[in-house]
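[[Local backbone shapes]]
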Amino acid sequence: SEPAARWYLRAARWALGVHANDVVAERASRGLDLAPPNSELEFELLALREEAAELAGEREAQARDIARLRANARARDDGVGACKALERAVLLHRWLEDRAHEAAALEELERAAAALADSRWWADAKEHRALYDMRLDEHARALDSARGALALFDELGDARGRVNALDGHCVLPRTLGEGR
């Protein structure tokens, strides 16, 4: 039932807060057994279980949950959910050093962020693009993306995003020999 699934969601969140990843996965899985299919509740439970899999280094389980997150967001026509799932896919493929799948997920993230017309997601997509391009030695393009992300994070007043974008903004010019 949905109330029980919500209890498992709270229990999984608590377990994540104390770094009990095995408990997170177990509670989230139990909640998923009870959650309505293609619901926001199912998405939240999947997101917690995916995060626990990431922290535990269980990449296959993580990839399965990301696929389910993407399907859930599509079924609900949830643009924000799609961006969250795509960002997780970008991060997974970056960790796996799978450039082709990272690029594909990043392109999908950029399209989803543009469709949302949401500055936060567009800034995150630009930040991911800068990191991707930097690893490909596409420094000028990476610097443009980092500057774009920085401007958007400034507009949003997002200190975390600003620090991350500034890191790329400062590291890239040194890499290009421009100094800072």
Notes: The chain has a mean pLDDT of 91. Residues 99-116 form the longest helix (18 residues). The two ends are 58 Å apart (CA to CA). The chain has nine helices and no strands.
